[in-house]
Amino acid sequence: MSDERDARQRIRESGTAGAAAVGSGVLLDEGVETAAALARGAPIRSQTRLILRRFVAHRVAVAALIVLMLITALAIFINVVSPYESNPIPLTPEILGDARHGPTGDHLFGTDRLGRDMFTRVFVGLQKSLQIGLGVAVVSVLLGVAVGALAGYYRGWIDTILMRITDLVLVVPALAVLVILAANPEPSFFGLFDFPPATEVPGMIIVISVLGWMPMARIVRGEFLSLREKEFVDAARAAGATGPRIIVRHLLPNTVGPIIVFGTLEVGLAILLEATLSFLGLGIQLPQISLGNLVAEAEGTVGTDLAYLIIFPGLTLFLVVLCVNFIGDGLRDAIDPRSVR
Q1: Buried b (16+ CB within 10 A) or exposed e, 173-206
Q2: C-alpha 297 chain-centroid distance
Q3: Residue 187: domain span
Q4: How far is 308 from 246, CA to CA, in rounded Å?
Q5: What is the percent of the chain with per-residue pLDDT over 70, rounded to a whole number?
Q6: Could you say which of 33, 48, 75, 289 would form a disulfide bridge with 126 (CB–CB 3.0 to 4.6 Å)?
Q7: Is residue 220 part of a domain?
């Protein structure tokens, strides 16, 4: 350890710590660490390994990732794990006889007013929430990256038009639009498009994504405006690289950090929006199950013996969104070396 510290000190004093990687904000200490590794013959850590090491050091984010993976696996394999159906048909006398029972060894989350197992229903509802969250994140990122990349690289009139469109959509109240579209469950825009109903998973993904890509576009545009002036971009132009090739091969890889962080946080936002709409009766409709309509169905149970009907779906929703946000924080700290303390 003393040899390593001495090597680092000599490198700092000599000023040969190594240049930061092109297009990234790598700290001087990482350059010192790399040069010190070279000096003592140790293997050099790649940028990916440095990011992974910083993420693993973020204990809260790692714990949140483990919890989220367990919850997601349980939601995916709930039909294997649980012996009960989420919507048993017909409702037999045996099922109805188990109605309104609190949590037990047989029914971990209790049973609802019709005797259906709440553990199964909560995790079946979580499937819908996760589908919407992941779908919205993917579509929003693709739209935002496309608009931001074109605006930031080409600038001029292309930037002006795309950013004015972004500003126009940004001032639209998303929740109000979602309520209007959900109240009219088959939005066809006067017959111009054949969209899936806004009260189903595909339609909700489309609607929320169309109203949620603007922050991603602004982030990518800002990164591109900075990166396009770097020497490696000038070198690529001098070598004959076209604009699309420079965007895909040189600029996007240097913007992957903010993109990943935004996509992670967008999952939580989309899940909350879906839950809000379903709670208002305008999202996923029964007999389909989502966490939002489970909470809405049990809203009158607060303060009664049936309060568990709202507690377990609410806690599951809270835990998923909290884990997603912690993971986003950990990724931000790991990808951006300037945030390392």
Answers
A1: ebeeebbebbeeeebeeeeeeeebbbbebebbbb
A2: 27
A3: 60-335
A4: 55
A5: 80
A6: 75
A7: yes
In a domain, 341, yes or no: no
**Segment 251-256 long-range contacts (CB within 8 Å, at least 24 positions apart):** 251/23, 251/149, 251/153, 251/223, 251/224, 251/227, 252/145, 252/149, 253/23, 254/22, 254/23, 254/24, 254/223, 254/227, 255/145, 255/220, 255/223, 255/224, 255/227, 256/335
pLDDT digits (tens, 9 = 90+) for 280-303: 777 777 778 888 888 888 877 877
pLDDT at res. 65: 92
Mean pLDDT of 205-226: 87
In terms of domains, do 41 and 64 share one?
A: no
Q: How many independent structural domains does the chain possess?
A: 2
At 339, the pLDDT band (50, 70, 90 cuts) reads low
- Per DSSP, what are the bridge partners of residue 117? 111
Per-residue pLDDT of 222-269, as tens digits, reads 888 888 888 888 888 888 888 888 888 888 888 888 888 888 888 888
Q: Show Cβ contacts of residue 161 under 8 Å, excluding neighbours closer than 6 positions.
A: none
Other C-beta atoms lying within 10 Å of the C-beta of residue 52 = 13
According to the model, what pLDDT value does residue 23 have? 41
18 and 104 in one domain?
A: no
- Sequence-distant (≥ 6) Cβ neighbours of residue 307 within 8 angstroms: 301
pLDDT in tens, 178-200: 777 666 656 555 455 666 777 77
Give 41 or 129, the one with higher predicted confidence: 129
- Written as one string, the DSSP assignment of 14-42 is HT-S-PPPTTS---HHHHHHHHHHHHHTP
From residue 303, give the alpha-carbon distance in Å to each of 264, 276, 307, 323: 35, 22, 6, 28
The DSSP result for 281-294, as a single string, is TSSSPTTS--HHHH
Cis peptide before 287 (omega within 30 of 0): yes
Greater confidence (267 vs 28) lies with: 267
- Nearest by Cα to 1 from 53, 50, 42: 42
Closest CA to 84 of 107, 56, 59: 107
Residue 172: count of CB within 10 angstroms of its CB: 11
